[in-house]
Design brief:
Layout: E1 8-11, H1 18-27, E2 42-51, E3 54-65, E4 76-86, E5 102-108, E6 111-117, H2 122-132, E7 149-150, E8 158-167, E9 170-177, E10 180-181, H3 187-197, E11 206-211, E12 216-219, E13 232-236, E14 240-246, E15 252-253, H4 254-263, H5 269-290, H6 298-315, H7 323-344, E16 362-365, E17 368-371, H8 382-386, H9 391-408, H10 416-432, H11 455-480, H12 486-497
Antiparallel strand pairs: 1-2, 2-3, 3-4, 4-6, 4-10, 5-6, 7-8, 8-9, 9-14, 11-14, 12-13, 15-16, 16-17
Length: 498
């Protein structure tokens, strides 16, 4: 077997016909993973990616341009894998508009072409796998796609389960195609790779990734240049297009599992405590594998929380009654953090964290819990998503998710969520070696402190981070699922009144 094959990169639309690009202009805003609301947005070709020896698979990297969107290197870039096949002139009898992944058929200057979404097409899956797997794991004849299927329900990426994929660690893989491409190393590649290298089995084993080659030399036309010599501009930064990980067998989505428990009013405490322990180990391994971060600067940290809250209040009128309560809570946290920093003669250290931890980012199998999806909150700027932070932010995210599971699962036991939250916190504390004496309250705000935070400060900070997460959820539900907005709204009120 040969090493994994690098991809080829060309500037702009390369050989993609204008008719294909116009077809995408209509199709893209209708896709669930499209990252902005449909509107006055244009799709500007940035780079075109192809796979060596694969003629019909092309990746279009498109920059989104429009009112309120960043430009240049800060542009939002989407990845659109395409399978392009020459076809006869379309007729009513030959075009199957219900075919999986069919985008459309267009007539171009070089002939008629049928365009499929590569995210759901086996030809594109095979190309990604060949580019991702190094050495002996490289697929060669397509047999690895037996039983492969796309995972339904994803909102920001496209994942494909490949149960027959052979690799050096065994068999079975999960291919994630990153629909939004950020310049620089992607956290959902860097973090699982580092944790796998460190030997931690709390994440699905990292197998490989597809990346833009670095450097990416883009030819440019220079008047007066020597004939036959093609100058190039400086390389684009590295970016990742897809990540491949080991398939976790007999696994259940954590949120679906918790909702099923809630629907039966079955105690989720044991599972929650086990998950708390895994999250504590995750934080310890992240510190070990990636190193500590800088110190928390109280004014800057609280400034971000206040900015997020102001944006939420501006977006959602229903939040107005809670403005004063949020401001008071944040003022109290700010004063305590400043006192801690002054008392310690330094700042509270930050570290790499998950950044968007909830039950849906965990799988439960006979081997226990595994944590996945390290992209961070998709609505946050990339710089915020990858920045070192407090582990308590992940704890707050899981507390909120347990509350959601109780609501979506329609638990009739009013104590179901509270008991699960307490169990999670206890599992986290015990695994961290930071158990405290005393009774733990059954609401978000119970202490889950780090070594630099006293219990009272950690308790207050966890309340603030839980409110921050709930405000984020209110905005999301307001925009996408208004019928669910009452869930985080009630949480804001509950935490502020505790």
């Amino acid at each position: 077997m040969s090493p994994a094959r690098p991809v080829h990169v060309l500037p702009g639309a390369a050989h993609l016909a204008p008719e294909v690009l116009r077809l995408l202009d209509t199709w893209l805003p209708e896709q669930r993973w499209y990252p902005v609301p449909p509107g006055d947005v244009t799709h500007e070709p940035w780079l075109t990616v192809t796979f060596p020896g694969v003629a019909d698979v092309v990746i279009a990297l498109l920059r989104l341009a429009g009112p309120g969107l960043a430009a240049g290197d800060e542009s939002l870039v989407i990845q659109v894998p395409l399978v392009l096949t020459p076809t006869a002139e379309p007729t009513a009898d030959t075009v199957d508009t219900e075919a999986a992944g069919l985008i459309g058929t267009v007539r171009t200057a070089s002939g008629t072409v049928t365009v499929h979404d590569g995210g759901v097409h086996p030809a594109a899956w095979h190309a990604y796998l060949a580019a991702a797997l190094p050495g002996t794991g490289e697929p060669e004849n397509g047999t690895e796609l037996a039983g492969a299927r796309r995972i339904s329900g994803e909102q920001s990426n496209t994942s494909v389960m490949v149960p027959a994929l052979p690799h050096e660690a065994g068999r079975g893989g999960m291919l994630k195609i990153l629909r939004t491409v950020a310049l620089g190393p992607h956290p959902d590649v860097v973090i699982p790779e580092a944790l796998t290298r460190a030997g931690w089995d709390g994440v699905p084993r990292f197998l490989g990734a597809v990346q833009l080659p670095a450097p990416v030399a883009v030819p440019v036309a220079v008047p007066g240049a020597v004939r036959g010599v093609v100058p190039s501009v400086p390389a684009e930064p590295l970016a990742h297009l897809a990540v491949l990980s080991e398939l976790v067998g007999d696994a259940t989505d954590g949120f679906e599992l918790a909702c099923a428990y809630a629907a039966r009013d079955e105690d989720f405490g044991e599972r929650a405590a086990e998950l708390g322990a895994v999250v504590a180990h995750l934080h310890a391994m992240l510190r070990q594998a990636l190193g500590p971060g800088p110190g928390l600067e109280p004014a800057g940290f609280m400034g971000v929380l206040r900015r997020r809250a102001a944006e939420a209040f501006a977006d959602v009128p229903e939040l107005a009654p809670h403005r004063a309560g949020v401001a008071a809570l944040f003022d109290a946290v700010s004063a305590r953090l400043s006192a801690v920093a002054e008392r310690n003669g330094g700042l509270v250290p930050l570290q790499p964290i998950h950044g968007d931890l909830h039950l849906g980012q965990a799988l439960y199998s006979p081997g226990g819990w595994k944590v996945l999806d390290f992209e961070g909150e998709p609505q946050r700027p990339v710089s915020e998503r990858v920045a070192p932070d407090l582990p308590l932010r992940d704890v707050a995210g899981m507390l909120r998710s347990l509350d959601y599971a109780a609501a979506v699962g329609q638990a009739t036991d009013p104590h179901w969520a509270g008991h699960a939250q307490v169990s999670f916190l206890e599992g986290y504390r015990q695994a961290s070696g930071e158990a405290h004496e005393g009774t733990v309250r059954a609401v978000p705000g119970a202490a889950a402190s780090g070594s630099e935070l006293d219990v009272a400060t950690a308790e207050l900070l966890l309340r603030a981070l839980t409110v921050d997460k709930a405000l984020y959820e209110v905005v999301y539900e307001f925009r996408h699922r208004p019928a669910w907005m009452h869930i985080p709204l009630a949480a804001v009120e509950r935490v502020l009144s505790s």
